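Checklist before submission:
- one chain only
- standard amino acids only
- sequence pasted in full

Submission:
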Amino acid sequence: MSRMKQCMDAGTFAQVILVSLLAGTLVGCATSKSSHTARTASEQLLISSAIDRSLSKVRFTDFAGKSVFINDKYLEGVDKGYLMGTLRHRVLQGGGKLVESADKADCVVEARSGGIGTDSQESFVGVPALGIPGLPIELPEIKVASRATQMGTAKIALACYDAKTGESMGSGGKSTALTHNSDTYVFGVGPFRSGAVLQQRQSAIGFEGVGGSLTGGSRTVAAQAPIEMVRQGSENGLPTPLGIGSGATGLADAKSVGAGNRPSFLGSQAFPDGSAATGSHVTGSTGGGSIANLPGQATSRK
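Returned file contents:
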């Protein structure tokens, strides 16, 4: 009986060992599906930032109190929807009123694109890949440091004319703006990122540092003030113009353009207090006046 019990204990022990070995070889598997948009978010941010910067050179406060129709007949290129939407938004910020046809407008703004898109370039410091003569092998390249840069460009031109007579209301002009996004690697460590895309992501809700970068904070969550959709208070039944350019939130910001902080290519511009601001195109050319020379505006401080 004792011998039988010993045999049973040995058999049980062997079963436990066998089950343990089998359990140790089991592996859990899981799969997940992911998809990517046809255009990367980085490309779209580069272009939209270039559009914002280009339009920041236009004094949309010229349209205060005027009915404006924006004509996109000659506007072509990528992200046309964002460009048109931004134009409409800036006109509203400047105190203008949007209308859906030229016969209801005081002035017509005609927009055209001279080039909206991206380019890329790569460079590195090291030894390039070398082929060995007579042998079907190649020595791999050795990169000490490398940089991949993608650039966004937006060249936008605007013309303004009287909706009733077709006569020019100002010389208008064109503005070109650039953005870039760079990823740098040193001895394979990186990316160390810089440029417009990183700046926008750092100000985005949910930002938790630069993925894959040793320089990015791991738990830096950006905060953002709520977007104001209906402004409280107005003068003479019209909304107060918000100024121009990204980050401009009032008359003081718009004046700073004339002080040289953010030049404009549209010449002189009067403000409600009687002062004037002037500037030049970011690339050196001038527009020769405001986009819409409206009557009754002062040109110098009284």
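Reviewer check: The radius of gyration is 31 Å.
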